[in-house]
Give the backbone structure.
Amino acid sequence: MTNSLYSPQDFKSDQYVRWCPGCGNFAILNAIYKALAAVNVSPAQTAVISGIGCSSRLSYYMNTYGFHTIHGRATAIATGVKVANPSLSVWQFTGDGDCLAIGGNHFIHALRRNIDINIVLHNNEIYGLTKGQFSPTSPKGLVTKSSPYGTFERPFQPADLIFGAGGTFFARTVDVDIPTSVDVMVSAAKHHGTSVVEVLQNCVIFNDGAYKMVSTKELRSENAIFLHHGEPMLFGKNKEKGLVLDGFSLKAVTLGENGISEKDILVHDATTKDYFLHQRLASMSGPDLPIALGVIRDVEETTYEEAMVEQIQAVQAKSTVKTFSDLMNSIESWEI
Amino acid sequence: MTPSHKIIELDHVVIRFSGDSGDGMQLTGTLFSNLSAILGNEISTFPDYPSEIRAPQGTIGGVSGFQVHLGSQKVHTPGDKADVLVVMNPAALKVNAHEVKPGGVIIYDENTFTDSGLQKAEFQTNNPFTELNLQDVQLLGIPLTEMTKLSLEGTSIDNKLGVRSKNMFALGLICWLFNRPIDKAQAFLTKKFSKKPEILNANIKALVDGYHYGDNIQAAVSTYRIVKSNIEKGRYTSINGNKAVAYGLIAAAEKAHLPLFLGSYPITPASDIMHELAARKDLGVKVIQSEDEIAGISTAIGASFAGNLAVTSTSGPGLALKGEAIGLAVMAELPLVIVNVQRGGPSTGLPTKTEQADLLQSLYGRNGESPLVVMAASTPDNCFDYAYWAAKIAVEHVTPVILLTDGFIANGTALWKLPSLNDFPDITPPRAPMIASDWKPYLRDQEKLNRYWMIPGMEGFMHRIGGLEKSDVTGEISTDPKNHQKMVAIRRSKIEKIADYIPPLSIYGDQTADILMVGWGSTFGHLSTAVDELNDSGKRVALAHFNFIMPLPKNTQEVLSAFKKIIVFELNDGQFASYLRTKVTGIEMSQYNKIQGQPFEVEEIVHFISSMI
């Protein structure tokens, strides 16, 4: 954090920030300014791409190159930006509707290709900007403007989609927990490939309290687990609880009970290629299991754009065609 | 050549090759055309593909054709009807019987005209020629399959594979018929099959034997020689429109000193643009084959934002999907080239057939007032020039440009003189002429009204753009009523001003005629040939052919007003006519609309105009 050329202030634009009072986006924005300062890439080298939604208004509040695009297409546009100029640091801000409903197809393909962009997914389990319809992550039975009798469809978990599509980085944080948010965003930036940070965000107007079980530091110590690569999976007010594998399921145990000691507790390895355990961790929820926060998955894999550059360079090394004129000389032609 | 043969000298001739999709008609036709071009003829070709990849052998759905028009003078169309029709099986005869001129020659493979072959082609009798009422044609039946088998006896190619070489036997015979020495054909084949020596040997043997067969049978047909044309000296190739578009974009990127980026999704008949650009990694071209049409244009918009010369390519259905994203590029004001290779519609339509029915979609297919540039290429070779123009306009006026071509010129070929980039104008991306602290994202060049294209990486010029309406100059989001009206007007004026940068409309044919034919895009070849034929026979007519549609050339009203009768010819239900009527005043226009998935025929136009005079 100390050697950065930039301060959070350098990333603030002059625009008046317009979210509803109490919106989780204020905290997220705060975390982003700090994270970008820590990442130490200049605002001029940073491109922020957003789609449509309350989350997507974020690009206007950042003093970087920004592009507020159309609903669901930010991932594809960000892909184009990164491939066109791989030296840029590319961020995408999106929400559960923008990313997982209309944007679902572009999302899974960016993950599959492993494009080096940093996606911050504001998951408030609702459509806020259009005033309160349910989203693909809303719990079944939620009563909303478009489901006055409750939804009768299952939601999906962003993490499951991400792993299924070959995602190489997944982290989760709670909007109000700024230190963890900064941490995971910096890790996301450092990750070499598509990084997704799921932010459990509170929409104070249309879906207040969706994450109340982790909305304070107290509650988080009981109901969440902060995963760190290489460290044992411990949680609880005094780190008295931990996770073990029971068959193929995770189980929460208490140290000292039933002969459990720290050596029995699982140690988090974010770098395993096999995502089985990452998926088990990401899908934990109460009351029996804590919600996993922090960097859950972080594996090394070639990115699409570097593979493209590599192929171009390999072809160029063997070819005598360097210009349009060379191209004309190389094609089948005859003199008249 | 045996002196007893009569050799007829022709200015031009049309040959149509047709057979099963698996019979290699495209290869045969292409080889023959290229051969003719090398020998100094002008050429124009048109492949007529079936929709199916491999229909059941010998059936009508699987017939594939290739037509080539050779000539000694400006050959602008692949010809209406064929002088020589080569059919490899009864189905090919059924499909193409009426594509041959009265007095023309039909060369057919006797061996496939069996009971079973005739049945597959849905003939009712044993005599297909009578059944089809083909009276005034010369028939030349050749035991092509048998002769090919004989030719390949003793080589290592088994019978099944060998029969595939019958197209080469036929080619050899055609070369004899047209007095083409086959050594150059042998050279082409050697290059194409260099990695498969057994197939190469089989093909060359069949080719040579086919050539000598003509001599040996002393066929009772005349042979032909096409008079060499007076083309300007230089280095030539034959090129189709899709390849020409790809080359035009490459040329523009080099001139503009910008990396070239294509985001695209496979779609008939545009995919070859992507294939060609994907193959040009030697020139550093970046191509993403995206997951869908919308990702195709979205990645291109991202690449444009990042400063590349960005392109997306598609056909009608893809353009429909891209509508919202095109609107984003219009609103944000980014350079973007959108190539639409039109095909029969609506919906899935006729994917392998040609049509010009996406004009109104291109002009208007977006929500809100969303003006952009619409232009159209008119020959396979000028697809190069118009792709170059489209890129130049997109970059210098910072706007999306839709370039329309269609299946006919995309797949048809023409002779193309290899260009030098020295002969092409510069392309200069407009960058801010002031320092960063004085610059705002929507400050404009006062003459062209474009904003300045500042890209990520440029120190100090950080800014945000997007799809929401914005304040003039500052670019801050605004719903102010007067501002919105002003911005709509600015975006419209910016496109209208481009009329100052495009060539004026010119007249082809008789400037003083009373009748004016109007056309746009790929119909130029047929319309201009019709004008030539009419004027040569004393029937006075002129043609105004448009390549720039939005904006129209500045003198459009003036030019059209000079004529007494105007007919708009197009391969759709009257789209350009309806648009023109909103742009010119006091001018009545009638329409000639053909919507059959086929290009115009010179004959039908000549007949129509003649009936008016």
About this structure: Chain A has a mean pLDDT of 97. Residues 25-39 of chain A form the longest helix (15 residues). Chain A is about 30% helix and 20% strand.
